[in-house]
Q: What sequence folds into this?
């Protein structure tokens, strides 16, 4: 039973069905880098794509051939969701994470090709190093992109500015930005949302648009468009050049803790009560039935929140 637990020290593989394909993502929970774990926001993201791909902006006929870049890709879950809809995806992360990311890209690409010989269901996906704010890395991926995606890419305030610079530098006038995020810190969340609203046209995906099973009050999805009136691309280039001159570039991007009918993102509220209600429902269900993998993952998240402020002596 111990070996079946998700994200335990003995868990090295997460199996996930996406758009009818059985994908397998290697992970390393014991790694010192948080990018080597499959985080729940990435699962919510791909299941959202799966639910909304029959019509609208995420149907394969509209996405086929679109250029997508995934920031802070980690194990590569979100990028594969876009690739399975026909996009040409570049999944990026820091050099320390690339071996695991490349393994997942190669294994799943090979598996899909073997199971569907001669099919063009999969667009393309490759793993590339990209440190946020690194001008050479940004030029190497040849922006702009049609879509910029990321899930659980920010855990602290100091990462917000490098992320913003990089998004600007990778964007064109018609770029769409899709981000998934699990609220772990109210202060980080408020600052992040304020930054998005100051620079982009932001919409919050309603829960009704998400998969009914793969969602949680603490996990949000955002769809954003570049506000061309602000002159973001030029401003991003100036910021990156200035940081390179000063030698103060921040490139750390560790992780922790989308439809036309999306609601505009409003003022950040207090989600603690809503999240506690969900946790209470999970807890009361525990003695009475078998847990799904998703419920098991959410129990782990709940336990982490409960233990976050507990000092063990």
A:
């Amino acid at each position: 039973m111990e070996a079946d637990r998700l994200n335990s020290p003995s868990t090295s593989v997460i199996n996930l069905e996406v758009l009818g394909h059985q994908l397998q993502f290697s992970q390393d929970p014991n790694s010192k880098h948080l990018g080597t774990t499959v985080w729940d926001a990435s699962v919510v993201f791909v299941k959202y794509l799966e639910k909304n791909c029959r019509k609208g902006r995420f149907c394969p006929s509209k996405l086929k051939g679109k250029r997508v870049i995934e920031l802070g890709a980690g194990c590569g879950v979100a990028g594969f969701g876009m690739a399975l809809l026909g996009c040409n995806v570049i999944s990026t992360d820091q050099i320390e994470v690339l071996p695991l990311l490349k393994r997942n890209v190669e294994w799943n690409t090979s598996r899909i090709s073997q199971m569907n010989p001669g099919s063009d269901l999969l667009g393309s996906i490759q793993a590339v190093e990209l440190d946020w704010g690194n001008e050479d890395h940004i030029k190497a991926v040849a922006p702009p992109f049609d879509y910029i995606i990321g899930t659980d890419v920010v855990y602290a305030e100091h990462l917000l500015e490098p992320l913003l610079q990089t998004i600007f530098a990778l964007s064109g006038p018609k770029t769409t930005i899709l981000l998934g995020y699990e609220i772990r810190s109210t202060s980080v969340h408020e600052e992040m949302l304020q930054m998005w609203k100051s620079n982009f046209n932001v919409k919050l995906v309603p829960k009704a648009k998400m998969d009914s099973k793969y969602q949680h009050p603490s996990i949000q999805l955002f769809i954003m468009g570049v506000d061309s009136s602000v002159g973001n691309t030029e401003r991003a280039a100036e910021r990156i050049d200035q940081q390179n001159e000063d030698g103060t570039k921040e490139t750390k991007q560790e992780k922790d803790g989308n439809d036309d009918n999306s609601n505009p993102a409003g003022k950040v509220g207090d989600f603690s009560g809503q999240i506690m209600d969900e946790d209470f429902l999970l807890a009361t269900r525990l003695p009475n039935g078998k847990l799904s993998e998703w419920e098991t993952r959410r129990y782990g998240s709940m336990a982490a929140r409960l233990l976050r402020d507990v000092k063990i002596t």
Q: What stands out?
A: Residues 285 and 291 are 9 Å apart (CA to CA). Strands lie at 13-18, 21-26, 67-70, 88-93, 124-129, 147-151, 176-182, 200-204, 219-226, 263-264. Residues 1-9, 247-261, 265-284, 305-313 have pLDDT under 50 and may be disordered. The longest strand covers residues 219-226.
